[in-house]
Amino acid sequence: MTTPGRSKRRWWIASILALLLAGPGESHAAQVTVVNMIPLAQSGESNQDSEPNLAVNPANPRQVAGSAFTPSQGFCGPNLAPIFVSSNGGDTWATNCIVPSDGSGMTSDITVRFAETSGNLYAGILRRPGGFRLNVLRTSNFQGAATMTVLVDRQFVDQPYVQATTVGGSDRVYVGDNACCPTGFGGRTATIDQSLNAEIAAPVFNTIRIESRPTAGQDGPPIRPAVHADGTIYGVFYHWTTRVGNFSPFATITSDVVVIRDDNGGVGATPFTSLVDPGDGLAGMRVVQNRTVPWANTSQATFGQERFVGSNATIAVDPRNSSTVYVAWADRVGTSDYTLHVRRSLDRGQTWSDDLRTITDATNPALAVSSDGTVGFLYQQVVRVAVVGNTVIQGWVTHFERTTDAFATVDDLILAQTIANAPPVTFLPYIGDYVHLMAVGPDFYGIFSANNTPDLASFPHGVHYQRNANFATKTLLALDNQTPVPVSIDPFFFKVLAARPPRFQYAAKFICGKPDSPVLAGGTYFTAINVHNPGERGVEFRKKFAVALPGERPGPVSRFFDTKLGPDEAFEIDCPDILKHTRTRGFLKGFAVIESDTELDVVAVYTAAGANRLVETMEIERVPARGRAGSDGSDPVPAPGVGR
Amino acid sequence: MGSGGRRVALAAFVVLVSVGLGAPVWAQSALDDLVRQSSFIFQGVIVKAGATSTSEVPVSPSTAVVKVNQVFQTPKANPGLVGREITVLMKSSAGLKSGEQAVFFARGWMAGEGIALQEVGRIMGRGGADLPRRVAAARQAIADQELRARVSSAQLVVVGKILRTAPRPPADPSAGGSEHDPQWQEAILQISTVLKGDRALKEVVVLMPGTLDVAWATSPRFKPGQEGVWILQPHPNLPGYTALDPLDVQPLAQQVRVRRLLAAPRSSP
Predict the structure, then answer these.
(1) What's the pLDDT tens digit per position in B118-150?
(2) Chain A residues inside the 8 Å CB shell of B218
(3) Contacts of B75 in chain A (CB under 8 A)
């Protein structure tokens, strides 16, 4: 844990810190996985796969879908675009050509979400050609070949952001979007397109205006819903109060950040009006007012080639208690910064904290709350790395912070730290106007886009590339595994799985060496602990050593050491191993403790030699497993009995 | 089944029946329909029915592993298919046997550690010696149909040269502020020949997106001095024309082709 402080400007420092914080050999701490999502078969691609989004099936977290500005490259056939799909929890990915499109083979904005229990995947897209054609899509088989069904097809809409759940067997879908451009609803453009029966053949979608106040012509682009299982629906948006400039490409917006709420899933005559601001008596609580939001719809040399279009808002509700809700947004507090703010309400949005977290020069905030109340905060921060001649080398650092105390302390995982100057921008957004983070149970899943140079130094917690890459030469390679491929922007999936207690623990007594005091009979004692993996899959487990001292004194306990065994493999832990791990010499007694999620065969062999150095006694003991509560909620195995 | 589906089924039927009768003569239009829907056309041999070659695709009775022997069409992003085994999701797996050869018309389905395709049509056997020529002819016919659709719907088709480009005057903010705002730029197009439309026109304003936004990433941009054939639509709200589809700007060398497409009746390419 670290206390939030001044941002680190040098990523090598951050990298070292991250490695130090991660600690060695802590295999049962949170497990971090980062995967470059471009599949092997697309190794030759060099597209700008920016603005990613992610959906994990809550009913089966092994099913994961992702999206980005990823073109078909002619693969999909006419008028289809791909999404990313995984059936193994995001460890490996493929693209699946199921999104309706035009000849470009890609979409404009796209977000994806699974319903809670039905397995249906929904998408909100801006369908090409053109800029503002909303399609809401659905598939019941996200790995199938059938094109997603179009549920809604209308104009004019910007930045559809989909959330979904299942209530009483019906899928409820909430698409936050902006009714522009041209602006609709007399400038009150913040909108939720809602269906309470999205799973049926012809679902009804209602377009609900959630802005209750006059605006400076419109609201900001991001309208983000959040869903709680008790039927509470929140939403957050930028309420624009004044604007200076014409948007082409520059403007300065003055904005309030507004949270709306519905306590009954959007059902009723006046949805999303449950939260009233006492300041003006209108629906929608103004979390902050009169914030400056820069609008510069061009690639910004000082902001990692990204743009400022006020598209950075996020909201997350605590699954344990729908009264607890977090928001984050971006604005400008000085003259040239872009600053993220995180705040919290404990009373259903009625009152709000001051900033719990403030991050300067960052974008793409995304919040989620896990089942144990841990808050996850994903964002991408631009840092100045070096100056070479007249060129300032910048980097994008992708942070994932977790906190259990409202950001008094945070556990900051740096997922990626990549060059921001390359590749040159192809289109905007460069890395995205949004990313996504979600929690399923105690685990977090997220997605971001970044420079794809295969360099392990860029990924402090490791990374897995499916596409061909040579990490030694830091070169991407085409499908032939020989032809170099230019660096580009790729989507990266990550998951941070909560620490889980291992399901099985074995404590094997060891006695090593020749006693120099009369606690045992004279002689030399040997212990060999044999471990066998009886399963058909490889197993990772850990071991530590607890030293027992005479006179009822506890001895030191080593740290855990990670170990692997392949199917049906076995190895032996013997006295030299134990002495090495405990950094001791001479006579030693204690326990070797082995922890595993998979049942193992553990057998200890004890021998003792007398003065002639020949074996005089030998004992073989099968070490029983001590059951522990499984991370999957299963019952522990029976406690071992006495004996062998 | 929609009209498109019926067309494909009919085309496949014509092809299959033709092959079944041993007749090498198929309707070119039937082949055109198959080619139009396909991103992959290849001849191959079925290695194993009811199987897959890539872990992302679950095995089903409709999947088969096919070894590619000859490629007639493939996306640039998927080179080197000859000799590889790929997965094909068959339209119909009835009677499919290992060792059978066919020409497969397919679109991409999954790309993972390998690729899986979705079949849109099939010709049993090797397809005949003239298949490459026929596929090439189909591709040309499809390209002509797509370009003819653009010129048919255009208000103005001209040969000309861009004189200069400039930003448009500031937009009306009431039009809305979106990150997808096109940020229109004006290109002044000097007309040398009018192929369709008002023949009195000598110069028009063509609007092009000035933004880098993704929504307009594939729209053509013009430079002063650029010559070509412009296929133009009037902007619905602003004075000027647009050429937003990549097909809307053709090199000068395509002038004869565009004239031919303008003159040809719609029923033939």
Answers:
(1) 999 999 998 888 999 999 999 999 999 999 999
(2) 104
(3) 73-75
Name residue B102's beta-bridge partners. B44, B124
Range of the domain at B47: 3-144
Give which of A46, A48, A75, A449 to mutate to test B binding, by max B Cβ within 10 Å.
Answer: A75
Q: Quick check: B180 and A77 CB within 8 A?
A: no
Q: How many CB atoms lie under 10 A from the CB of residue A450? A: 28
Instruction: Return the number of CB contacts < 8 Å for A and B.
Output: 189
Nearest to A311 by CA among A450, A215, A431: A431
Looking up tokens 């027992």, which residue turns up? A548
Average pLDDT in the A620-637 region? 64
In a domain, B175, yes or no: no
**Structural domains of chain A, with CATH:** 11-497 (2.120.10.10), 504-627 (2.60.290.11)
> Contacts by A78-84 with C-beta closer than 8 Å and gap 24+?
A78/A103, A78/B36, A78/B37, A78/B39, A78/B107, A79/A103, A79/A105, A80/A105, A80/A147, A80/B107, A81/A105, A81/A106, A81/A107, A82/B111, A83/A110, A83/A112, A83/A123, A83/A142, A84/A37, A84/A491, A84/A493
Alpha-carbon distance of A492 to A494, in angstroms, equals: 7
A143/B180 Cβ within 8 A? no
Q: How far is CA A215 from CA A102, A155, A220, A279, A541, in A?
A: 35, 21, 10, 17, 59
Q: What pLDDT score does B132 carry?
A: 93
Q: How far is A601 from chain B (nearest CA, A)?
A: 32
- Our CA-based measurement puts residue B39 at a distance from the nearest CA of chain A, in whole angstroms, of 5
pLDDT at A492 over 90: yes
Strand partners, A573: A529
A63 token code pair: 């099913």
> Total structural domains in chain B?
2
Quote the ipTM score: 0.90
- Overall pTM > 0.80: yes
Q: What is the pLDDT of residue A584?
A: 82
Residue B17 belongs to a domain with what CATH number? Answer: 2.40.50.120
Within a domain: B174: no
Closest by Cβ to A311, choosing from B58, B179, B217: B179
Chain B neighbors of A96, CB-CB under 8 A: 109-110
Residue by residue, DSSP assigns A293-332 as EEEE-S--TTTTT--EES--EEEEE-TT-TT-EEEEEEEB
Q: What percent of chain A stands above pLDDT 90?
A: 80
Residue B159 shares a structural domain with residue B111 = no
| Interatomic CA distance for residues A245 and A317, integer angstroms | 35
**What is the nearest CA distance from A626 to chain B, expressed in angstroms?**
37
Among A39, A108, A145, select the one facing B111 at the smallest CB separation: A39
Spatial strand order in the sheet of A206-209: A158-167, A170-178, A190-195, A206-209
A221/B170 Cβ within 8 A: no
In angstroms, the separation between the Cα of residue A75 and the nearest Cα of chain B is 5
For β-strands B156-167 and B85-89, DSSP reports them as unpaired
Q: Is the peptide bond before A61 cis (omega within 30 degrees of 0)?
A: no
Cα A516 versus chain centre, distance: 54
Q: Is A98 left (phi over 0), alpha (psi -120 to 50) or beta?
A: alpha
